[in-house]
UniProtKB/TrEMBL annotation:
Catalyzes the condensation of iminoaspartate with dihydroxyacetone phosphate to form quinolinate. Belongs to the quinolinate synthase family. Type 2 subfamily. It comes from Aestuariibaculum sediminum. GO terms for biological process: 'de novo' NAD+ biosynthetic process from L-aspartate. Pathway: Cofactor biosynthesis; NAD(+) biosynthesis; quinolinate from iminoaspartate: step 1/1. This is Quinolinate synthase. [4Fe-4S] cluster binds at residues 87, 173, 268. Pfam families: NadA. The gene is nadA.
């Protein structure tokens, strides 16, 4: 316990000394969320990264998120507590095969979900997050064909909501595909007064059970609008920390995962690689740093800026 107290104190001291900002995703462990200057979803975190005047950005999230912060701030030092904090969804879209795919469809506008590598962003026309995906797809003229990558579940959801046909990349997130529909139905039978809310990275059969479908920040806002209600929450379980803190009167249960999952709910082991000790170490040593090649930064910046512009 005393270790934790010292780490909190030391991280705060170093943050001031180095003019650093700590940006944390909702899926981070509670201690990291508690010490962060800002906790949010991919969109909120990129907006904060774009406007910060800190010299050092400590990105408590996964690699592609820290890369986005670096692309927006090439002059700044961007550190990630654990460089191995990757993402199964980003990994499901390797740049060589994706480039070949886009070349087969040169007339298509390429929209990529932010959960992808900097190389994939560099091959894109516009980036989106789950908070603005519908708006971004709707900004493309009806007659223009679209490639959407890398998340097929989010892609299918957008197609259903907008009525637009899109060519989908076959990628997905292990965490959002780990929800068990049988266990969810069983849980809902036991608690019929709970409403199901889900992230659109989840599979269609899970989304079909949901009263509300939206990004992590969308889900928090939905619960805020119904503060006395009860919810089963189908996204990474780390979100329950902020959700419960912001809406203490709501009753929340994480959606159950399949039997062989690491926990009864669904947790992203990449997100959980970051610890308070690693956060302290990376701030102290200004390492490990995120480096993105200059030619990739040049090409990846425009599609990210287009997204930020459309999200104002
Ligand atoms: O699954 C993720 O990585 C999500 C939901 C990120 C985000 O904030 O949109
Ligand atoms: Fe990637 Fe899924 Fe983890 Fe998000 S929850 S970082 S999409 S593996």
């Amino acid at each position: 316990m005393s270790d934790t107290i010292d780490l909190v104190k030391e991280i705060k001291r170093l943050k001031k000394e180095k003019n650093a900002v700590i940006l944390a995703h909702y899926y981070q462990v509670p201690e990291i969320q508690d010490i962060a200057d800002y906790v949010g979803d991919s969109l909120g975190l990129s907006q904060k990264a774009a406007e910060t005047d800190a010299d050092v950005i400590v990105f408590a999230g996964v690699h592609f998120m820290a890369e986005t912060a670096k692309i927006l701030n090439p002059q700044k030092t961007v550190v990630l507590p654990d460089l191995n904090a990757g993402c199964s969804l980003a990994d499901s879209c390797p740049p060589e095969s994706f480039e070949a795919f886009t070349k087969q469809h040169p007339d298509h506008v390429v929209i990529t979900y932010v959960n992808c590598s900097a190389e994939i962003k560099a091959l894109s026309d516009i980036v989106c997050t789950s908070s603005n995906a519908l708006k971004i797809v709707e900004s493309i003229p009806d007659e223009t064909p679209i490639i959407f990558a890398p998340d097929k579940n989010l892609g299918r959801y957008i197609m259903r909501e907008t009525g637009r046909d899109m060519l989908l990349w076959d990628g997905s997130c292990v965490v959002h595909e780990a929800f068990s529909i049988d266990k969810l139905i069983e849980l809902h039978k036991k608690h019929p007064d709970y409403k199901i809310i889900a992230h659109p990275e989840s599979e269609t059969h899970i989304l079909d059970t949901a009263t509300y479908i939206g990004s992590t920040s969308g889900m928090i806002n939905f619960v805020k609008a119904h503060p006395k209600e009860k919810f089963i929450v189908a996204t990474e379980a780390g979100i329950l920390h902020k959700m419960q803190e912001e809406i203490p009167t709501a009753d929340l249960i994480p959606a159950p995962a399949v039997e062989d999952n690491t926990c009864a709910c669904s947790e992203c082991h990449f997100m959980k690689m970051n610890t308070m000790q690693k956060l302290y170490d990376c701030l102290l040593n200004e390492s490990p740093q995120i480096h993105v090649p200059e030619n990739i930064i040049e090409r990846a910046l425009l599609p990210i800026e287009r997204m930020l512009e459309l999200s104002k």
